[in-house]
Amino acid sequence: MNFHKIILASLLSIFFSLTVFADWKKQDSGTLAWLHSIYFADHDNGWVVGGNGTLLSTRDGGRTWMKEKTTTGDTFRDVYFSDRRNGWILCDRGIYGNAPPSYLIKTTNGGKDWKAIDFGDGRERMVRFFFAPDGTGFSIGEGGIILRMQDDGKPWKSSPLPVRYLMLDGLFTDDSNGFLVGAGGTILATTDGGSSWSELRFAESRNRPKLNAVYFHDRKTGWATGNQGKIYSTNDGGKLWREQVTGVASDLFDIAFADSMVGFAVGDNGTILRTRNAGAIWTIERTGTRHKLGRVSINGTQGFAIGFGGTILTTEIPVNVK
Q: Bridge partners of 314?
């Protein structure tokens, strides 16, 4: 009898630990703006940006968020800070006017002041930007064009890609190797620091949906996620990508991993998926919202998901699962 009680207690313990792990709690963002991007420069300092010039900051690791003053009502699409003082925000002027649709603002004092930086005379709308480990910046968007930051302060240099699709996300795993994903199920790779890009192949040749995000845990292991609930993975540095089973049809907009095994993907209708085994099995999390979730971020043992209607969700990632 005691043996059976021990087994039952163990099973209940596992069940309740899974339940706690699956819960996402809504935070007070102080805004109803559509939140587009979240970034943590370190454990304590993070930023969230969104529509109507919305900028939120945290100094306590995301436990609380403060609304910061900005000098524009333009849409903020993306945010990146190299440290707690130096940061960039990608801005969208909208559809009116003669000025280029996209530009950056930069701060060197933690967001107290911002300076506008134009990409140049290009008419393409940029949707994301990211940095290689050596500090070189890249921006991607419409028309199969990638913009590269120049060291001498000149306008960003435009380079053509081998496809004309909208590009939606990118990253570098080191100074030389990087990846882009976008419409048409496109995954592009560079091995020369972004000077040239080539298209990668999938294990399946049938039609592929738009890919919205890419994430690599190390140089070999990565994931890409997109519409129709699709997640693809690679374990050979992107040479070959295979589809994983998600069990959902909702469009998935972002993906991030806490380590090589534990990861999250977010998307339409408040969808959050979680894996504990590198994507071999994905399970649906309870989120308590139907709002579109566009980004997910991991900060230590805390997970964050943001999206429409000023939504910020957070969950604890137990240390013993990492």
A: 25, 304
CA dist., res. 12 & res. 125, Å (int)? 52
Burial 259-275 (b: 16+ CB within 10 A, else e): eeebbbbbbbebbbbbb
Select the CATH number that applies to the domain covering 26-321 from these four: 2.40.50.100, 3.30.1330.10, 1.10.287.1260, 2.130.10.10: 2.130.10.10
Any idea what DSSP says for residue 209?
A: P
Integer Cα distance of 107 and 261 in angstroms: 35
- CA-to-CA distance for 297 and 194, rounded, in angstroms? 25
Site of tokens 């240099």? 157
pLDDT digits (tens, 9 = 90+) for 192-250: 999 999 998 776 656 778 999 999 999 999 999 999 999 999 999 999 999 999 999 99
Structure tokens, 262:
């534990």
As given in the structure block, the two tokens for residue 62 are 């995301």
pTM score: 0.90
Domain edges within the chain: 26-321
CA distances from 205 to 209, 212, 221 (A): 12, 19, 21
Instruction: Convert 194-216 to b/e letters by CB count within 10 Å (16 or more is b).
Output: beebeebebeeeeebbbbbbbbb
| Whether 212 contacts 225, CB under 8 Å | yes
